[in-house]
Write a structure and sequence with these properties.
91 residues; mainly alpha
């Protein structure tokens, strides 16, 4: 009786861990937006989130929706500032 052949490697799995310099990009590149789309997104998020959140707080509501809107505004402000810092650093 014949023994079944060993399956050939498909190339999907790696033989081991990559060398230290080839491990992939760090997540720090997410905080350095380079296109103008990042600036526009950040400004829209900041204005919409902060104005909507403050409107909700002035109306006397303090539920999760208002706090989430304020958080989106804070993230938009952070994205805008990081875009400006990246722009100043590269120019």
């Amino acid at each position: 009786m014949k023994h079944p052949r060993e399956p050939r490697p498909t190339g999907r799995r790696r033989a081991g861990s990559p060398p230290p310099g080839r491990r992939g990009p760090s997540l720090w590149h997410l905080m350095t937006p380079r296109s103008s789309r990042g600036l526009v997104l950040g400004v829209f998020m900041a204005v919409g989130g902060l104005v909507g959140g403050m409107g909700g707080l002035l109306a006397g509501r303090t539920d999760r929706a208002v706090l989430g809107t304020l958080a989106i505004g804070a993230l938009g402000l952070l994205l805008t500032v990081s875009w400006l810092v990246t722009y100043a650093r590269e120019r």
